[in-house]
């Protein structure tokens, strides 16, 4: 019996990545964004490991995620819920000591009359997504009365350091912060942490970099948060001129040794990576040939020779198959590749 595709989650690398980001901004609190089940790697084990390493602030998106995390971590660490409260939820936030991120007037108005829990306020400085837009003196006075523990905004172009939008958003946020002089402020996600010394503010909010994604600047090393591998089911020799897979989309130009691997798009191996992704046997790169199917993927193992045989595990994300490189081959980002790993992929914590 063959085994399932497996994601081995390297908690020690995730902790090391958090420490690396923390060291970039001395004097700044480094939080951890563990929304979407820590980008698919498991919010509870990831948050527990980071808590032990000294991380005391966590971000999730939904109330349900916040409640689950609070139950797992106990009281003590701060948990902020990015989408903020829906009508009637304020007392649940208070009961679980979750910090509500308020992003609009309706939320702020409801919060003002609710049993007092802790809140943060999000401003929109260019995403046009979530957050208060424009700030009258009257708005500022009303929001100050809520005694926010954090004011924050989110950068649209932090992964493009030369983009003038970064400085523009920063200037707008600085102007907002003047109305909240004694309130800690936060602007940077992972990519924002790479923009330089001044971008730490009081608190940074990295997510993807903790899990091995992002494109760090020279001198910053981010380690893989996960290794995704799967087992070879069989190996066969195909002749030049034969085709491979559904749609017969790829014709072999020479005699080729093929291996059929037990992983497919139902596991989150993106079909857009058909004919483009690389799989690794040890350090030998084996190109994916033809279309990725639901449960199976065919790779060219000609170069791997005797190393390619039934039962051998092949790496699709990890030390060799680098997350962002694989994502780029599939036309996407590390975020989507990680969060798309399905339930069928067995999670193992190392
Ligand atoms: C998801 C998210 C983050 C983390 O972003 P990364 O790019 O993964 O570091 C930070 N802040 C907000 C508001 C987010 O939604």
From TrEMBL:
It comes from the Bacteria. Its EC number is 5.1.1.1. The modification N6-(pyridoxal phosphate)lysine is found at residue 35. The keyword Isomerase applies. InterPro entries: Ala_racemase, Ala_racemase/Decarboxylase_C, Ala_racemase_C, Ala_racemase_N, Ala_racemase_pyridoxalP-BS, PLP-binding_barrel. GO terms for biological process: D-alanine biosynthetic process. Residues 225-350 form the Alanine racemase C-terminal domain. Substrate binds at residues 129, 294. One of its GO terms (cellular component) is cytosol. It is an enzyme of class 5 (isomerase). GO terms for molecular function: alanine racemase activity; pyridoxal phosphate binding. Keywords: Isomerase, Pyridoxal phosphate. It catalyses: L-alanine = D-alanine. The keyword Isomerase applies. Its cofactor is pyridoxal 5'-phosphate. Pfam families: Ala_racemase_C, Ala_racemase_N. The active site is at 35 (proton acceptor), 246 (proton acceptor). Pathway: Amino-acid biosynthesis; D-alanine biosynthesis; D-alanine from L-alanine: step 1/1. Belongs to the alanine racemase family. Catalyzes the interconversion of L-alanine and D-alanine. May also act on other amino acids. HAMAP family: Ala_racemase. This is Alanine racemase. It comes from Hyphomonas johnsonii MHS-2.
């Amino acid at each position: 019996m063959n085994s399932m595709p497996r994601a081995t989650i390297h908690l020690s690398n995730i902790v090391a990545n958090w420490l690396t980001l923390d060291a970039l901004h001395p004097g700044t609190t480094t939080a951890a964004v563990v929304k979407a089940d820590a980008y698919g790697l498991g919010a509870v084990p990831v948050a527990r490991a980071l808590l032990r390493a000294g991380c005391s602030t966590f971000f999730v998106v939904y109330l349900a995620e916040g409640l689950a995390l609070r139950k797992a971590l106990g009281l003590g660490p701060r948990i902020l819920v990015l989408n903020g409260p829906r009508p009637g939820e304020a007392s649940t936030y208070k009961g679980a000591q979750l910090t509500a991120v308020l992003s609009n007037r309706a939320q702020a108005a409801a919060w003002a009359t609710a049993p007092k829990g802790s809140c943060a306020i999000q401003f929109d400085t260019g995403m046009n997504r979530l957050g208060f837009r424009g700030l009258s003196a009257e708005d500022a006075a009303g929001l100050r009365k809520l005694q926010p523990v954090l004011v924050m905004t989110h950068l649209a172009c932090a992964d493009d350091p030369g983009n003038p939008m970064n400085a523009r958003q920063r200037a707008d946020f600085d102007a907002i912060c003047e109305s909240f002089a004694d309130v800690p402020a936060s602007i940077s996600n992972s990519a924002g942490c790479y923009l330089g010394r001044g971008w730490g503010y009081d608190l940074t909010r990295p997510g993807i970099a903790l899990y091995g994604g992002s494109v760090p600047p020279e001198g910053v090393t981010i380690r893989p948060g996960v290794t995704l591998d799967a087992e070879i089911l069989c190996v066969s020799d195909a002749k030049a001129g034969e085709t491979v897979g559904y749609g017969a989309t790829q014709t072999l130009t020479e005699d080729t040794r093929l291996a059929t691997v037990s992983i497919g798009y139902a596991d989150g191996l993106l079909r857009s990576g058909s004919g483009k992704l690389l799989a690794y046997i040890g350090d030998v790169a084996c190109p994916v040939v033809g279309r990725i199917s639901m449960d199976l993927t065919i790779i060219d193992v000609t170069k791997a020779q005797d190393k390619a045989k039934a039962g051998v595990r092949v790496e699709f994300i990890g030390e060799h198959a680098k997350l962002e490189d694989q994502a780029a081959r599939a036309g996407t980002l590390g975020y989507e590749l990680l969060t798309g790993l399905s339930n069928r992929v067995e999670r193992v914590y190392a």
